Every structure is written in C-alpha cells, then in structure tokens.
Amino acid sequence: MTAKKIEAPEVEEQDYAPEYVDLKVRLRGQDLTLKIISDFDDAPIEAIEHFQNDRELSGFKLLLDEQSQEVLSGMRTSLREWREVILPAWSELQGSEGE
C-alpha cells in the first residue's frame, strides 16, 4: 500500500505590520523611545503563549519592534530595570490608551 502525499495549499504571504506606539522610558540616565505593538490583539501568537506560560519578559520582548529589542539587548537591560522602569511605563501607556 502506497501512501499518497498530500500537499499543503499555497498560502499567499501578506505583508502585515502591526501598528506601534512610542513607549518612553528613562533608563540609566538616558531617555529612550521604544516601539511597542499598540494593540495586544495584534501581538504574535508566540507572545501570547509566553504570557500564558508565565514568561512575561519573553512575551514582552516580542511586542517590541526589532530595533527596540536590539537597544534593550545592547544595554544588557536587567530584570530589575524591566520590572521597575519598563513594565510600569508600559502599564501606564496601556491605561492612557483606553481614555
């Protein structure tokens, strides 16, 4: 008996770029403007999975654009800085968008 190979249908790749907003933080005496996805519903599924599995930092990084990720990685941002500076700024940003 020979198994028939089933081919997946071709999916047309579409350019999808979520909208980003500015997340302004002051880190180590520097004013930074990071770009973060404006609507959590537009986040990549991988980011949502990270949040659901208590991996908030990994999920958060996926909400940032590549340049912002590189800036934070290049600065070797600490968990303390993320918790005390970046996360509160993001929470504040989310609250102000609902107004």
Number of strands: 2
Average residue-wise pLDDT:
87
Task: Give the SSE order as H and E letters.
Answer: EEHHHH
Instruction: Please give the count of helices.
Output: 4
Task: Indicate the low-confidence ranges by residue numbers.
Answer: none
Structural class of the secondary structure composition? alpha+beta
Strand order of the largest sheet: 1-2
Estimated radius of gyration: 18 Å
Oligomer status: single chain
Give the strand content.
15-25%
Shape verdict:
elongated
Helix content: 40-55%
Distance between the termini: 64 Å
* Main beta-sheet strand count, sense and barrel state: 2 strands, antiparallel
List the helices and strands and how they pair.
Layout: E1 20-27, E2 30-37, H1 45-52, H2 56-63, H3 66-74, H4 79-97
Antiparallel strand pairs: 1-2
Helix pairs in contact: 1-2
Q: Can you walk through the features of this model?
A:
The chain is about 45% helix and about 15% strand. The chain is an alpha+beta fold. It has a two-stranded antiparallel ribbon with strand order 1-2. Helix 1 packs antiparallel against helix 2. The chain is elongated, with a radius of gyration of 18 Å. The relative contact order is 0.16.
Quick overview:
Helix content is about 45%, strand content about 15%.
Q: Can you tag this structure with a few keywords?
A:
two-stranded antiparallel ribbon, alpha+beta, 99 residues, 44% helix, elongated, 4 helices
